[in-house]
Design a protein that fits this description.
CATH class: Mainly Beta
Shape: globular
Distance between the termini: 41 Å
Order of helices and strands: HEEEEEEEEE
Number of strands: 9
CATH topology: Thrombin, subunit H
Helix content: 10-25%
Strand content: 35-45%
Number of domains: 1
Structural class: mainly beta
Oligomer: single chain
Strand order of the largest sheet: 2-1-7-8-9-6-3
């Protein structure tokens, strides 16, 4: 055991209390560019935890109506098969969807990345 795996197991153990949509996600990955290779889509299930990065950040959806609009973060075990541009759809409520935005980091013994709410 290293300090990093200790940190990862401690964080991943408490994230279910703060997550948006629980831990079950269907990961949809599109490959191919439609020019040199055919476009195809594949789905697989992943366990991941999505939380809001900053709870106090708001945007104006309608005049005078602030709505939460902060970046979201995804956390997962290092062995989780997710990558940039994957679409994560909640297995319980398919209206909850997040797109993986940037490179995923493997700091502290876990996978961490930014995701964007799909509306």
């Amino acid at each position: 055991m290293t300090i990093y795996s200790d940190i990862a197991s401690a964080i991943l153990g408490v994230l279910p209390d703060f997550t948006i949509g629980g831990s079950g996600w269907t990961d949809t990955r599109t490959t191919g560019d439609g020019v040199t290779s055919a476009v195809s889509t594949a789905n697989h299930s992943v366990t991941a935890y999505i939380i809001r990065d900053k709870v106090d950040k708001f945007a104006q959806a309608l005049a005078g109506t602030p709505t939460p609009d902060a970046p979201f973060l995804v956390f997962a075990q290092l062995s989780t098969n997710i990558q940039v541009n994957d679409l994560l759809t909640n297995t319980t409520d398919s209206a909850i969807k997040f797109r993986v935005k940037g490179p995923l980091s493997t700091d502290l013994g876990m996978m961490i990345g930014e995701v964007e709410l799909q509306r």
